[in-house]
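> run fold Electron transport protein
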Amino acid sequence: MNRFIMADASKCIGCRTCEVACVVSHQAEQDCASLTPETFLPRIHVIKGVNISTARYLPSVRRRAVRQRLP
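> ok
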């Protein structure tokens, strides 16, 4: 499985809409209105640098660990 989704760095503005689309597409309700900070666990994470923009896949174990570290 490819764990990276490459994006065109010149077009990506870092809005993280792809993260929201990922969460909505993998939940039962498929509705943005039902998202809460507790249920927002995207399977991808946007990484943006000077010359690269990418979305990285995070396995479910890592997503839980990341969520536990957030305030």
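Residues 60-69 form the longest helix (10 residues).
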